[in-house]
Amino acid sequence: MRSFFAALQFLTLLPVPASRQARLEDLERSLAYYPLVGLLMGGLLVLLDAGFSRLFPVFLTSVLLVIALLLISGGLHCDGLVDTADGFFSSRPREEILRIMKDSHMGPMGAMAVVSVLVLKIAAFAAVPSPLRWWTFLLTPAAAYGAIMLNIALLPYARPEGGLGAIFSRKRSLPLALVAAVTLMASGWVAGGMAGLSAVSGALLAGLALASWTHRKIGGYTGDTLGAVFEISAIMPALVATAWGQAGGTV
Predict the structure, then answer these.
(1) Which of helix, strand or coil describes residue 63?
(2) Closest CA to 242 of 77, 113, 122, 117
(3) Which residues in the chain show pLDDT less than 70?
(4) Which sequence spans correspond to the domains of the chain?
(5) Residues 6+ apart with CB under 8 A from 51
(6) At 219, is the secondary structure helix, strand, or coil?
(7) Helix (H, G, I), strand (E, B) or coil at 112
(8) N or C, fewer C-beta in 10 Å, the chain?
(9) What per-residue confidence (pLDDT) applies to 129?
């Protein structure tokens, strides 16, 4: 269980028992538990949605859910989105992109990216039809972590000098990532039928598209690009569920 608590401690601000504080070797093995941590986060979103919706209209409830997701993760992934956007949209060579991404200051492209993603996420959450909301929010973080696992499995670590993200490349496994992806898609099917399967698949496909773009830009992943993968992939289940609802589907 130490690897699970390592994933929980690294990915969230949720409390972890003092006896289960993460060690480096636990963090290396924690990748397999990312979807499980995602389901825990999704369960919190479902509970918050049920509570907030009794007090507030759907748009305000969705704003609060997006803020809650940021707070639960400690802004870890959002910070990666900012740095990735600043680097990738700089039109610079690979080495300069990596240098820009390491700079902690937010540039104009990073600001534009984070505002666009958060606004789109709020709008997508608000648009999800009521019968589809519980499984959409339950599966959203888990599907986004599945997309992260695919990126780590398919790409090398991009920084030759190493970094925190390099820890996960030591234990990366394509079979593990594929098992996680299939399990998540099966969970989507059980929870929401074809709509749920499509929602999870949308997140995973977004992750694969971002992996391809990342490989072309810098030749591999970094911790920042993984954060961007989470933030962007986490929009897809709500977009797919909304489109499904607009088309007249209810399950």
Answers:
(1) helix
(2) 122
(3) 18-22, 24, 162-165, 249-251
(4) 42-246
(5) none
(6) coil
(7) helix
(8) N
(9) 95
Identify whether the C-beta of residue 31 lies closer than 8 Å to the C-beta of residue 176.
Answer: yes
Structure token digits, residue 112: 């534009």
**Cα 74 from Cα 68, distance rounded (Å):** 10
Write down the pLDDT at residue 20.
64
Facing residues of 221 across strands?
157
SS3 190: helix
Task: Write phi, then psi, for 221 (nearest 5 degrees).
Answer: -95, 160
Q: Which two tokens stand for residue 150?
A: 């695919």
| CB distance 50 to 75 below 8 Å | no
Burial 46-66 (b: 16+ CB within 10 A, else e): bebbeebbeeeebeebbbbbb
What residues are paired with 141 via a beta bridge?
A: none
DSSP state of 95: H
* pLDDT given for residue 19 in this prediction: 64
Q: Report the C-alpha gap between 165 and 68 in whole angstroms.
A: 25
| Rg, Å, the chain Cα set | 17
pLDDT of residue 235: 97
d(CA 45, CA 229): 20
Q: How many CB atoms lie within 10 A of CB 67?
A: 13
Report the pLDDT value the prediction gives residue 29, as an integer from 0 to 100. 82
Between the alpha carbon of residue 229 and those of residues 138, 143, 226, the distances in Å are 18, 11, 5
The SS3 assignment for 157 reads strand
Percentage of the chain beyond pLDDT 90 is 72
CA gap 176, 168 in Å, rounded: 13
